[in-house]
């Protein structure tokens, strides 16, 4: 808010002021006085917000975190299990305001000096964030040196401040740090005592519109236009739209915006829901020939206490709310001729977890789980002495629903649907077989379209089946002493405990409850020993070793198919981007020979492509050489290269080059390894190296 020396003098002046309205306000306000003397230290986080997938260097999410001492920072998971702070937005925004003499525009009249307490308050309030939210990924056009235009991805972060201003940061993707900040614009919202913020994104006739929904602690809610300059295909509102204007003293706690399709109006629409006290305010917005139509109302009778958390499943529009007494409400929107109505049902967590207090809820990306933060509730009318916070997971879908959604998915990426695949994995681990209906449906999908997504899904199922049939080791070295438990309440109760490749060093405790059977009671089938019974009868099942070998053979066959499909893609890139194949470092001849080495592999597309490439190579081989002994590295294995002197180099699964360095990347599930891009690599090789794992769709670290 000013030079350090001047700020220190002002703080001392205000603290010792004879006017109690100044001294007491200053001493009790933790924004002015973060150290607080005898007050508890300001540790922890006020709020956090996840960006969409695809924003960091690994194609994953960024995390915007607001600390208790009002510092806004952005973090990224650049290495496995390691979070790094990329930028401190509070510091950058403060520097911008200092350079502009704490004026938002040049037309602003100069304010008072820092020694004036009202000016001291104003400078703090214009830099104290209340909430921040990410927009969806949008496309901007960048002009290159040769006057060509290329599309560059960007994302916006809106930051709401105490003084009702909103700073909209624009970041170029992938976000790497301060150098990725494109611009920062400040909007005056005009809302008194702002409390919450959310992006309004609406698509109409292939036109994307955007705005910012702002809620007040006094009750009003409105949408503000956001002018996105140089953003391809984006539009905004001409003027603010007031969704609720009554100053009824019901603070807006949370706002969610859900894109839906109106079955009667035959057009897309936008549902805005806001938690206000113990009620849910909803507003349906749709664009027609007459303009923007707004329908709004409140849903009452949901909770006897104020709503402490609200989340929404954007797949089907279902809204979940919870109050601190352990009650969760599920609200399902049902369209009518004019607007919509809500059907709601009560989910009593006390029937599942006992007496609990709830502090927050969140739904997983594909709607498979509801995560609930709980502490112990009252026992015999007494509050617990200590609070133990736990995250409980409640299943919202059955195994059949999750499998059907995976088979009909438009995303076609297993990593982005990891909550659905977790339900499927749990079922296979528990039953130790792949259900017949899923196997048949998957085989039909593979025969009809042949997409590699369904082959990866098949590989996932086979790997989990193989894992379920292995004997559990007598001692698991990495697991802590307590056991993990997943509890399913259904017609066929059971529990399966599993080790996941993604879990390292820590263990998560999760309780899963199927909502459709909450009234049936809880039966926990303790199967901590996963060892399988040995089949000893003469006419019984085949020996387990033969079954495991059969599954292993199927896994290798599917992996080989996925490898060949990716090799075809790599060879296609080589053919398109190289005039003389000597210019590429990819072992083209080795990949071609590997593809054609199997007599049983009859792919006309691959044969034609290889024929064109070999014609271009003109009998040249351009082999790779070992960096230690300069011997030729033959291409005999897709996973590693071994020279004649026995030096072994792992192969990159994205380009099939040998990784002849001490540093390389691995996929999240440790399926495969990949090399780092080098400055000498052409753009098309760098693009190949940005791809996910060809076996599990996981990002590469």
Structure description:
This protein is an alpha+beta fold and 701 residues long. Among the domains are: 400-469, no CATH class; 558-690, no CATH class. It contains 13 helices and 33 strands. The strands form 10 sheets. Strands 5, 6, 7, 8 and 9 form a 5-stranded antiparallel β-sheet that branches. Strands 10, 11, 12, 13 and 14 form a 5-stranded mixed β-sheet that branches. A hairpin with a 2-residue loop joins strand 3 (72-79) and strand 4 (82-88). Helix 8 packs antiparallel against helix 9, helix 10 crosses helix 12 and helix 11 packs antiparallel against helix 12 (604-617). It starts with a helix and ends in a 12-residue tail after the last helix. The model is unreliable at 489-540 (pLDDT under 50).
**Outline:** globular
Mean pLDDT figure: 85
Annotation field: number of helices: 13
Number of strands: 33
Protein name: TF3C4 factor
Pfam family, one: zf-TFIIIC
GO molecular function, one term: histone acetyltransferase activity
Organism: Ibidorhyncha struthersii
Task: Sum up the structure in keywords.
five-stranded mixed β-sheet, five-stranded antiparallel β-sheet, 23% helix, 701 residues, alpha+beta, globular
């Amino acid at each position: 808010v000013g030079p350090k020396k001047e700020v220190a003098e002002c703080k001392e002046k205000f603290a010792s002021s004879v006017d109690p309205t100044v001294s007491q306000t200053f001493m009790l306000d933790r924004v002015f006085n973060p150290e607080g003397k005898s007050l508890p230290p300001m540790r922890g986080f006020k709020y956090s917000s996840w960006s969409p997938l695809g924003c960091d260097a690994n194609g994953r999410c960024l995390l915007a975190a607001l600390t208790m001492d009002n510092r806004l920072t952005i973090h990224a998971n650049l290495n496995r299990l390691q979070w790094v702070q990329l930028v401190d937005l509070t510091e950058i925004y403060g520097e911008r305001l200092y350079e502009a003499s704490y004026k938002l525009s040049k037309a602003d009249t100069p304010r008072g000096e820092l020694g004036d307490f009202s000016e001291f308050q104003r400078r703090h309030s214009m830099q104290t964030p209340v909430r921040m939210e990410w927009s969806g990924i949008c496309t901007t056009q960048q002009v290159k040196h040769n006057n060509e235009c290329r599309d560059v991805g960007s994302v916006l972060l809106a930051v709401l401040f105490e003084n009702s201003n909103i700073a909209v940061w624009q970041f170029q993707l992938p976000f790497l740090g301060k150098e990725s900040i494109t611009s920062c614009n400040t909007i005056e919202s005009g809302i008194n005592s702002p409390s919450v913020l959310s992006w309004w994104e609406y698509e109409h006739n292939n036109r994307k519109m955007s705005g910012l929904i702002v809620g007040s602690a006094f009750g009003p809610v409105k949408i503000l236009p956001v002018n996105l300059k140089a953003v391809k295909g984006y539009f905004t509102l001409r003027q603010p739209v007031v969704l609720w204007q009554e100053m009824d003293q019901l603070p807006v706690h949370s706002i969610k915006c859900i894109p839906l399709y109106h079955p009667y109006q035959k057009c897309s629409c936008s549902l805005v829901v806001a938690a206000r006290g113990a009620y849910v305010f909803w507003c349906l917005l749709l664009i027609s020939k007459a303009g923007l139509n707004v329908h709004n109302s409140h849903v009452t009778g949901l909770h006897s206490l104020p709503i402490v958390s609200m989340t929404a499943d954007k797949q089907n529009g279902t809204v979940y709310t919870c109050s601190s007494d352990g009650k969760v409400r599920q609200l399902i929107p049902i369209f009518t001729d004019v607007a919509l109505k809500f059907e709601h049902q009560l989910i009593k967590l006390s029937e599942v977890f006992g007496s609990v207090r709830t502090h927050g809820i969140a739904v997983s990306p594909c709607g498979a789980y509801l995560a609930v933060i709980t502490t112990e509730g009252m026992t015999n009318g007494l509050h617990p002495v200590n609070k133990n916070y736990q995250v409980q997971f409640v299943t919202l879908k059955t195994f059949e629903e999750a499998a059907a959604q995976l088979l009909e998915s438009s995303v076609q990426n297993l990593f982005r649907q990891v909550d659905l695949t977790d339900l499927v994995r749990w079922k296979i681990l528990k039953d130790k077989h792949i259900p017949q209906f899923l196997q048949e449906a998957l085989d039909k999908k593979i025969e009809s379209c042949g997409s590699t997504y369904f082959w990866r899904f098949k590989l996932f199922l086979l790997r989990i089946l193989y894992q379920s049939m292995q004997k559990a080791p007598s001692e698991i070295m990495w697991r802590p002493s307590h056991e993990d438990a997943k509890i399913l309440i259904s017609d066929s109760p059971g529990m399966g405990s599993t080790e996941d490749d993604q879990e390292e060093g820590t263990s998560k405790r999760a309780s899963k409850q199927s909502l459709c059977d909450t009234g049936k009671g809880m039966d926990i089938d303790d199967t901590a020993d996963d060892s399988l019974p040995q089949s000893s009868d003469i006419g019984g099942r085949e020996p387990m070793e033969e079954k495991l070998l059969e599954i292993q053979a199927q896994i290798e066959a599917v992996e080989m198919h996925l490898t060949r499909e990716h090799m075809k893609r790599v060879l296609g890139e080589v053919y398109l981007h190289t005039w003389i194949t000597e210019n590429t470092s990819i072992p083209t001849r080795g990949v071609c020979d590997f593809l054609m080495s199997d007599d049983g592999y009859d792919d006309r597309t691959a044969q034609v492509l290889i024929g064109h490439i070999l014609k271009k190579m003109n009998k040249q081989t351009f082999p790779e050489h070992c960096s230690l002994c300069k011997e030729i590295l033959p291409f005999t294995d897709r996973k590693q290269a071994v020279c004649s002197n026995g030096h072994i180099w792992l192969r990159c699964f994205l380009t099939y080059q040998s990784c002849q360095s001490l540093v390389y990347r691995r996929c999240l599930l440790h399926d495969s390894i990949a090399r780092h891009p080098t400055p000498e690599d052409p753009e098309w090789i760098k693009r190949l190296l940005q791809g996910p794992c060809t076996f599990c769709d996981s990002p590469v670290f």
